[in-house]
Amino acid sequence: MQAMIQQYGLAMLLAGMVVLIIMGWVLLARTSRMAQGGQSRPVASGMPVMPRGGAQQNGALIAVITAAVAAAMGEEAAQGGFVVKSIRRANGSAWGRAGREEQMYSRL
Fold first, then answer.
1. Higher model confidence: residue 84 or residue 64?
2. What is the pTM of this model?
3. For the stretch 53-68, what's the b/e string if a residue is b when 16 or more beta carbons lie within 10 angstroms of its beta carbon?
């Protein structure tokens, strides 16, 4: 009976390892496909597509974003605590966005 339990445990361990290896291959194939040709499927969002590049940015858009940042910062912005040098879209995962937000909030 003891040997049968050990064999069952080893079989479950082996099956778990095979599943993990297959998941790793799938993840690797997916990330390499995304790095080569962009995303594997288009992402639909309600956000308008903004042109890339500093020369194509609208001056009014920069002014609005600067005003919004100044309003959010309040008293510190009135003392000249920041300068908007560039505006660019932050791409990435939800985990990356959460990390950036945590880093920004830790500085307040």
1. 64
2. 0.32
3. eeeebeeeeeeeeeee
